[in-house]
Amino acid sequence: MMAKSDRDRIQTISFDQILTFPVLQGIGNLELLRLPLTALFCSRKCPGEAILKAYDLAQQLREKETPVISGFHTPVEQDMLEILLKGKGPLVICPARSLEAMRIAVKFRPRLEAGTLLFCSVAMPSAARIRADLAEERNRLVAALAAEHIFVHVEPGGRLEKLQQHVVTKRIQH
Known about the structure:
Elements: H1 4-9, E1 11-14, E2 23-28, E3 38-42, H2 48-64, E4 68-70, H3 75-85, E5 91-93, H4 109-114, E6 117-121, H5 132-145, E7 148-153, H6 159-173
Parallel strand pairs: 3-4, 3-7, 4-5, 5-6
Antiparallel strand pairs: 1-2, 2-6
């Protein structure tokens, strides 16, 4: 169960027809969404060579204090989050579930209080568990909110490959 203070901090934004997402819930500094965010994506299955590059990339992003957005769900993304948390750059974490019952880990509290962290989700309050459809929706949200997209590794034929193709197509059209 989420602490009362966390539940009180949940803010809701209505997108109406701006995006296909009806409502975005957030805990933390919503102003971070105005920054030029860099999205990080990585398939669950990731070769060792790509993992090492991901760690180097996370260190570079940390040193530059680059604003980063991701679901930080796959093992490589979680490792990258740990590296990024050691820096000062703004972070937006998008879980593939509702924020309603989410417990905020103690390690995130200083970042929330400093205004350099935001948790946001488009999942309905009843979505207490991560599901594949919510992960896809979350990844579309991350892609939509980002100014730049980095795909650390994309497993051929996987769901992330579709998103990568969509992002590339959108870039070409602009």
